[in-house]
Write a structure and sequence with these properties.
Layout: E1 3-6, H1 8-11, E2 16-22, H2 23-38, H3 50-53, H4 60-76, E3 89-92, E4 100-106, H5 114-138, H6 142-162, H7 164-167
Helix pairs in contact: 2-5, 4-5, 5-6
């Protein structure tokens, strides 16, 4: 699970839902997916250029930089639910535990708890696809970049569609 519900006693204000991802796990998945795609790219002699195009540990700075852009961008789709949350978007790389990224939203408790898992998985897809699309943009593979741009935009739409149950309380007169 990559979300947690924080009570008012923990937050000192309104109850919150904290969506987060472990940076190491995201990086491992991005490396895996770019390596799968890279092995299909052949040079003039028909050999795979896997080493040339797969993201590796030496590109972690690229990965972290892209992640710093996508988390706030993704959060922007749900920002209305964070009104009143201090420092909603977080990028914790110096914590004493596991490094994480994500954001917190107000918990209106107007949804089926199972939906949080679905939203969480869709947020993860957004992060992964965004970083991968940026990777292919910078390796000059425009066709692969465009494919991942579409995957990212679709993941963003699907995440927001599922997050509707979190947004709905803002639309009613309470």
């Amino acid at each position: 699970m990559a979300f947690e519900k924080l009570s008012t006693s923990t937050t000192g204000g309104k109850a919150q839902i904290r969506f987060y991802e472990q940076i190491d796990n995201l990086f491992a998945e991005v490396k895996l997916l770019t390596s799968y795609r890279s092995r299909t790219i052949k040079d003039e002699s028909g050999k795979s250029d896997f080493d040339e195009y797969a993201m590796t540990d030496s590109e972690e700075d690229f990965f972290l930089n892209a992640l710093k852009y996508v988390v706030p961008e993704t959060f922007g789709e749900l920002a209305k639910i964070a009104t009143g949350v201090q420092n909603s978007v977080f990028f914790e790389t110096d914590s004493s535990t596991t490094d994480v990224v994500g954001f917190s939203l107000i918990d209106y408790e107007a949804y089926d708890n199972n939906i949080l898992s679905v939203i969480d998985k869709r947020l993860r897809k957004c992060y992964i696809y965004y970083v991968i699309k940026e990777w292919w943009a910078h390796t000059a593979f425009d066709d692969i970049y465009q494919r991942y741009e579409l995957l990212y935009r679709e993941a963003l739409r699907e995440m927001k569609k599922k997050a509707w149950t979190l947004i709905k309380p803002l639309m009613t007169n309470e």
